[in-house]
Amino acid sequence: MSKPLILVVNDDGITAPGIRALVEAVSNLGEVVVVAPDSPQSGMGHAITINNPLRLKKSNIFGDIKAYECSGTPADCVKLGVDKVLHRQPDLCVSGINHGSNSSINIIYSGTMSAAMEASLEGIPSVGFSLCDYAHDADFSTAALFANHIASLILKYGLPKYALLNVNIPKGAAQDIKGMKICRQAEAKWEEEYDERTDPMGRKYYWLTGKFVNHDHGQDTDEWALANSYVSVVPVHHDLTAHHVIPFINANWEFGSPHKPDDIPQLDNNRFNL
Amino acid sequence: MSKPLILVVNDDGITAPGIRALVEAVSNLGEVVVVAPDSPQSGMGHAITINNPLRLKKSNIFGDIKAYECSGTPADCVKLGVDKVLHRQPDLCVSGINHGSNSSINIIYSGTMSAAMEASLEGIPSVGFSLCDYAHDADFSTAALFANHIASLILKYGLPKYALLNVNIPKGAAQDIKGMKICRQAEAKWEEEYDERTDPMGRKYYWLTGKFVNHDHGQDTDEWALANSYVSVVPVHHDLTAHHVIPFINANWEFGSPHKPDDIPQLDNNRFNL
To answer: What is the number of alpha carbons within 13 Å of residue B226 lying toward its C-beta?
Structure first.
């Protein structure tokens, strides 16, 4: 049997310490190929590049491990890597290790997780890793240990189709971590405030600031796991349907009629001459 | 009772014909305020602006309707609009009308839907509208009719907390539409290929191309509804947890042990001197 083929991506860019730690963490598990952004892409969500062409450039940053830097987003790296770099469908895609948490609602803003989700859409078992440490000199070694362990578990046991994993690792030494918990995404949110400033030309501008607030007191969430020194492992999928809301709407929206155009009052405010 | 406060956003930019149709569609339902990107933001997914400040500029593009153009992404427009433009929490956020479909998996790449989701995270009932027509001179009048109808239904009946709606409208005349269907997101995907070209300097570059393939034969999906001349209405939420996968992993991943660091083989390939 040939060695597993492992695609490594991230959103902090190919020179970030987190991807170096991840490449090392999985390099004993198979043939590793890196396709990562040529510049940091944090907060890019699931952005893809539609109106501009992409560039791909070979890099020797990881020695004898094949690596390419890509001019696009994390999701672009996966799409382009699978189509133009890899000689076959990879057995695993690992993304990260992100420098900072992607737990709870952070997943929807996360380039790290969008790369992993893009891979899962291609049918590739995939996982994103994030270290809950924003320090400039964050130590990725504990996160790398768990990345290796979880990557080997996925290669051994697989994942259900279209499922991927969102793994967050608490900061600190390995011996302080109690283990891993399989969790759901906590119902937490950012409470934003913009810091309003005035530039030298007298014009206002705004910096995003905010605090992360967890209103979810469940003990089965990623936030609970992380606060209690566990590695959180949230299985994720791309079906955003709120299935429980379908009966609510069918019951409330006067669905005796299927809302045909004839039943709908016509617009009479044609102020813009549509 | 005061008039409902309605925030209008989009991803095609404040000058796009779709947002003009949407402003008109909801202008008889309440006090309308527009905060929209100053340039097109298609395919931006749930990107937010972290490392740059944002600008906000008053616009008179919609006459006496209050409007601002924002230098950021669709999600930024909602965050900044709620914090700095609106005098109170809006009663409804409408996003669009997008020029092109956001059905099925397109939702994860969609700036239109990320703006609506951002609003729902703030606790605002919200909905994104998209017209399934890519023609340069697409006619938004049928979509506007349904946008008005659905916005008024949400104002009347509300939505469960953190639920939002992904509404797609088939192209064509209103009389050809059979009505509305409340649906789930179809399990469809893009099969991508990159078009490889060589620039005048001899370097390769890549354009994203691809075709949309629906492998989902359910008659309860948005793709089925659209193919059968119905407006599709998919209730959406931000919980990406694949709840059905939690028992799979707990059963398969040798969880007699909680995977403490002591149980995990240490990494011995310290090739990068982490």
So the answer is: 26
Non-local CB neighbours of B52 within 8 Å, separated by 6+ positions? none
Q: Whole-prediction pTM value?
A: 0.92
The pLDDT-based confidence of B2 (bands split at 50, 70, 90) is confident
Interacting residues of A262 by C-beta distance below 8 A, sequence separation 6+? B175
Over residues B251-263, mean pLDDT: 73
Token couple for A229: 């020194």
Show the tokens assigned to B2.
């005061």
Contact predicate B146/B167, CB 8 Å? yes
C-alpha span between B248 and B253 (Å, rounded): 8
Q: Using CA atoms in the order B218, B106, A238, B231, what is the torsion angle rounded to 10 degrees? A: -40
Within an 8 Å CB–CB cutoff, is residue A146 touching chain B? yes
- How far A149 CA lies from chain B's nearest CA (Å)? 7
Domains of chain B (ranges plus CATH)?
A: 5-187+218-242 (3.40.1210.10)
Structure confidence at residue B257 (pLDDT) = 63
- Which residues of B fall within a CB distance of 8 Å from A63? 271
A273, pLDDT greater than 50: no
Task: Find all residues with CB under 8 Å of B177, minimum gap 6, and list them.
Answer: A260, A261, B142, B146, B169, B170, B229, B230, B231
Helix/strand/coil for A11: coil
Query: What pLDDT, in 10s, does the model give residues A27-56?
Result: 999 999 999 999 987 767 778 888 889 999
The interface predicted TM-score (ipTM) is: 0.90
